[in-house]
Write a structure and sequence with these properties.
Strand order of the largest sheet: 3-4-2-5-6
GO cellular component, one term: cytosol
Strand content: 5-15%
Shape: globular
Largest sheet: 5 strands, parallel
CATH class: Alpha Beta
Radius of gyration: 17 Å
Structural class: alpha/beta
Helix content: 40-55%
CATH architecture: 3-Layer(aba) Sandwich
Number of helices: 9
Family: Belongs to the thymidylate kinase family.
Order of helices and strands: EEHEHHHEHHEHHEHE
Distance between the termini: 15 Å
Pathway: Pyrimidine metabolism; dTTP biosynthesis
Pfam families: Thymidylate_kin
CATH topology: Rossmann fold
Number of domains: 1
Number of strands: 7
EC number: 2.7.4.9
C-alpha cells in the first residue's frame, strides 16, 4: 500500500531534524517537543539511531564510540534495522494523534554510509516504506563552524572528511518536505521559526494519509 489508513481521527505529524553533527538538532528537538506539549499538543521525541533499544542499539553505540569494528555494509544494515524496529511504534503513535519529533531519521543512515563509499540508491533501498516525514528541518551549518562546537570529533563519524561528504549527500536527498535552516542563527530565533512552521504542518496533515518514504524512487 502506498499510504497508511487513518483511524478516523486526526493523526499527528512526523517532524524530523536532520543535518551534520553538532548542527543543533538535539537542542531544537527538545525545545519543539516542550513547546508543543505546552500548547495543547501531544508530542513525543524519537531518536535515530536508538542506541538503547536492544539488541542492535548497543552494538551501534559501541561502533560509533570506536569500541568495536564493523564493515560499512554491516553497519548500514544495523542502522536500517534499528529504525525498522521502531516502525510500528512510529506509525501507531502518529495515527493515534501524537506528533513525533525525530532527532535524525533515515536520511542520516543514507548520508553517512554514502559518504563512506556505499552506493546512494543501495543505501536508500533499505529504508523504502518507512513513514514519510511531514516536514524535515535541515540544520545547515558550514563544517568550519561545527568543528568549533563542543564534542566535535568525539565519535567515529565526527571526522571532517566524512562530515563534508555527508553534507554533500544531504543536498541530493532534499525533497519538497524539506525546510533548510541557517543553523548559525541563535537558538531562540531558530526555535521561533521551527515552532511556527510546525504548527502549520500539524494543522494541515491532520486529515491527510501518512505517505511512504521513497516508495516511488
Amino acid at each position: 500500500m502506498s499510504t497508511l489508513e487513518l483511524t478516523g481521527s486526526k493523526r499527528g505529524a512526523l517532524i524530523v531534524f536532520e543535518g551534520c553533527d553538532r548542527a543543533g538538532k538535539s537542542t531544537q528537538t527538545e525545545k519543539l517537543v516542550k513547546y508543543l506539549n505546552e500548547h495543547g499538543f501531544t508530542a513525543v521525541k524519537g531518536k535515530f539511531p536508538a542506541r538503547s533499544i536492544e539488541p542492535l542499539g548497543p552494538i551501534i553505540d559501541n561502533y560509533l564510540k570506536n569500541e568495536v569494528e564493523l564493515c560499512d555494509r554491516a553497519f548500514h544494515f544495523l542502522l536500517s534495522a534499528n529504525l525498522w524496529e521502531q516502525e510500528s511504534y512510529l506509525k501507531n503513535a502518529i495515527l493515534n494523534g501524537k506528533t513525533l519529533v525525530m532527532d535524525r531519521y533515515a536520511y542520516t543512515g543514507v548520508a553517512y554510509l554514502t559518504a563512506k563509499g556505499l552506493d546512494l540508491n543501495w543505501c536508500k533501498s533499505s529504508y523504502i516504506g518507512l513513514p514519510l516525514p511531514d516536514i524535515v528541518f535541515y540544520m545547515d551549518v558550514p563544517l568550519k563552524e561545527t568543528e568549533k562546537r563542543d564534542g566535535f570529533g568525539s565519535e567515529r563519524l565526527d571526522q571532517s572528511e566524512i562530515q563534508e561528504k555527508a553534507r554533500s549527500v544531504y543536498s541530493s536527498l532534499k525533497g519538497p518536505e524539506w525546510e533548510i535552516l541557517d543553523g548559525r542563527q541563535s537558538i531562540d530565533e531558530l526555535h521561533e521559526k521551527i515552532a511556527n512552521m510546525s504548527l502549520e504542518v500539524i494543522q494541515k496533515c491532520g486529515v491527510t494519509p501518512l505517505q511512504d518514504l521513497w516508495k516511488n524512487s
